[in-house]
Every structure is written in C-alpha cells, then in structure tokens.
C-alpha cells in the first residue's frame, strides 16, 4: 500500500534513565531529525517516556525526574526542532493510561511472556521472581503511545522490533473486534547494521545507559577521547604487525556507523575508504592506536555541533521546560481525540450517544413521541 505523504506520522521516544548516547544517535535520533526536516511527514511526535522508565525504576523517581531535562537538551541540541516536532512527556497525557487499560483486554499473559525484549530485560534486571506488573505490561503501554498519535512510522533500534510487532497485533485485534479506528505502525530501522544495535565501548552487545558503557552526546572532548582510546578491539591483535580481526571489534563497528568517505580526506588521506583500512588491518601492520585516533577525529567532528548547541540551551533551562509543557498540551489534544474514537468503537461513550438514550427510553416507554 502506498501512503499519501500527508498521512505519514512519526512517533518515537526515549526513557529518561540517563543522558542520550551515541547509540541513540545512530539508532534513532539522527534519523528522526532527517525525517523531521524531510517535509514528508504530517507530524513528528517525540516522547520522553517517564512513566515507562518508572516501571523499572520504582526506587528511583528522582533519577527519572532529573533526566527529563537531560533528554530534552540532547534532543534539541541534536536537531529536533520544537517548531517542527512535538516534544512531550508521557506522564502528562493521562489518556495514554486509559488506552493501555483497554488494550490489556486484547493481549494474553502468554503473549507478553513470549516477547523477546521483555524476556531479555527481565533477565537483565533480575526480575525473574518479582516482575512488577507495570513493567511486564509495558509493551501494551508502548502500543498506546504509538496508536494514540496514529503513528505510521516509528524510527527505532533493533531491540524495539518485538514491541512494534506487539503493537501491530493489538491494532489488528482492536480494529477487527471493534472498528477500524487504529493505524498499524511500522518500525523504521537504520539501513546500516552497525547502527541498529551499537555495541558498548566495552564490546558488550549493546550500548545502554543502564550498563554504563556509553559515549554520551554531552561528554566533553576529553571524555570522548579517553573512552575511545580504551575501547575494546581485537584481543588477538597484540603487535602492530599481527593480522587483526574485524569480527566483534568495536572500533571498526563504530567506524561502520559513523565514518563517511570525506573523513578519510580530512583525517586519514593514506586510505581512500573504510574497505581499504579494514583490509590493511586484517593483513597486519596497522595499529589500534592509529585507528582509534581516526575514530576520535570523526566522533569529535560529529559531536562538536551538538555540544555547542547544548551549551547555548543550558543558559535558558526554563524555556526548555516551556517547550515540553506546550508540546505535552498539544500531544494531549491529539491523544484525547483518539481515545474518544476508541471509546465510541468500544461502545463506552454513553453520554454522547443520543440514539442509545432514545432506544432505552423507547424500551421502557414504548410509543411515547419524543
Ligand atoms: P535503558 O537502559 O534505560 O533501557 P537505553 O540506552 O536502552 O536505556 P532507550 O531509552 O531504551 O535507551 O532507547 C531509546 C531508543 O534508542 C530506542 O529506539 C532504542 O532502540 C534506541 N537505542 C538504544 N540503544 C541503542 C543502541 N545501542 N544502538 C542502536 N539503537 C539504540
Ligand atoms: Mg532500552
């Protein structure tokens, strides 16, 4: 099905559990900015998922509260423009909770247990014996976030695919059982494999805030450099002359994610492109330090404009909160409209249904002319 440009709507977001890192940047943030600026989308909604963050940070509400502004600063400094995109805070839209409550009837416990991301996260957080119900059901709440805005397009990293799958199932079920009110969303993954799940600087499968293996967008130049210089590479590459391996070599994965041809002209003109650099590394004779310095140049170039914009924004924090307040108000109106359609479809709109009241009157007082 081809979709009219005017119908395409983006929704995506992040949990305020820490500042945003370069995994977020390549996995979703960079794409959002391009889509926002492309003019091909009717609306772009960007949500700070504080209610979701609370599902596994029950003991730590202050962390969630503090990180709202951090995420908002990272958003705007990365190029999300409040004039073009609606930036809002999840908990300020109570309609989302109401949707979640109704969608819960459409999902079985067994289906949630099968969700690979939920499985994985339960393991990671040692929740096996004590999963908070709210955490367990967060895929349903994520379906509410997406469908409340009738989003067609959700730019995310690979770990979110099972969530999108579950949201699509909920939409399908709702539209079949009640009425075709909801829109089936599609995930939009980065084209480049390295960007779909950027590993941590420690070589672990995923850079993530809760693992502390991140390069943050707001890190200082020195912090970025130190993290890159101590990054995990190839443990078998002991001498410069040894042949190196690319498999699982984090520095090369980052180059896959960040490096463009013009970076060679600027910082490493002895090589014409990444394939040539990789081939030399595999042959032997190319040291890790040289490759890391190249990566550092690229990362500094990428992060510098973001850092500079952040410095400016940090001078006026109240206006950033104001952006979020206005965005939350605007988002709430849209969610309320969807909720009203959902309630009509579910036949729980008693007071707006003149026909229902007329029919009930007729039942109890037949023949009365009204
Ligand atoms: P937490 O540890 O709290 O879950 P997180 O670092 O996983 O934090 P999220 O807020 O859960 O970050 O993810 C926000 C978005 O960024 C999602 O679309 C997710 O797919 C994407 N993302 C997160 N980490 C990466 C990564 N390392 N590579 C690519 N995309 C990522
Ligand atoms: Mg996550």
Please give a structural write-up:
With 370 residues, the protein is mainly α. The chain folds into 2 domains: 5-197 and 317-355, Rossmann fold; 209-313, Tyrosyl-Transfer RNA Synthetase (Orthogonal Bundle), CATH 1.10.240.10. It has 17 helices and 5 strands. Helix 8 packs across helix 9 (161-177). The longest helix has 29 residues, at 317-345. The radius of gyration is 24 Å and the shape is elongated. Adenosine-5'-triphosphate binds at residues 14-15, 17, 23-24, 27-28, 156-157, 159-160, 196-198, 206-210.
Summarize the model shown:
By secondary structure, this protein is mainly α.
What's the topology here?
Blueprint: E1 9-14, H1 22-38, E2 43-48, H2 50-54, H3 61-78, E3 86-89, H4 95-103, H5 109-114, H6 116-124, H7 133-136, H8 138-148, E4 153-155, H9 161-177, E5 186-188, H10 193-196, H11 221-229, H12 250-258, H13 261-267, H14 274-283, H15 288-313, H16 317-345, H17 354-364
This protein binds adenosine-5'-triphosphate and magnesium ion (MG).
